[in-house]
Amino acid sequence: MHHDDGEVGGGAALSWPGVPDFLPALLAAVQRLLQPQLEDRACSLVGALILELLRHAGPQMAPLLPGLLAALASKLCAAEDAAMVQSLLCVLAQLMHSDQQQLLDCLAGIQLSDGRSALQACMQKWCERQIEVRTAYDIRLTTAALAGLLACPHPALDAIQ
């Protein structure tokens, strides 16, 4: 069996012939992995998967981002495992570096089941758990994103307590 690895992974995987809605189906699977009732260990690599999707299909994901962010915020609030929290914070930090305004607008517009906005819930968890972030790259990524938020004049940030 001949296999051309260049066509199996990366961005090519998002445009397989005969699978027109592959990205929405993949994001639906990711959202299932982000269900709060799922054990953290069962979905420990979902953050890395999301980062890869953003790297290869960022612009294509834009219309699907609100659903993904709602699921991510719910999982982040429920997550206890430090590695799980770190991986989800890295996703938020990467998005923060990509388009801070759009991310803040989107998170501020999402209401979670406990009545808080996704922005408020994510920022609370982020501030509580930032100290637990490990690896030099992740520390730089998340700290720089938080520093960027301090300088951001977004009105939704003023409402966070």
TrEMBL record:
InterPro entries assigned: ARM-like (IPR011989), ARM-type_fold (IPR016024), TPR_IPO7/11-like (IPR058669)
Gene Ontology biological-process annotations: protein import into nucleus
Domain Importin-7/11-like TPR repeats: 23-155
GO annotation, cellular component aspect: cytosol; nuclear envelope
PANTHER family in alphabetical order: IMPORTIN-7, 8, 11 (PTHR10997), IMPORTIN-9 (PTHR10997:SF9)
Domain of life the protein comes from: Eukaryota
One Pfam family per UniProt: TPR_IPO11
Protein's UniProt name: Importin-7/11-like TPR repeats domain-containing protein
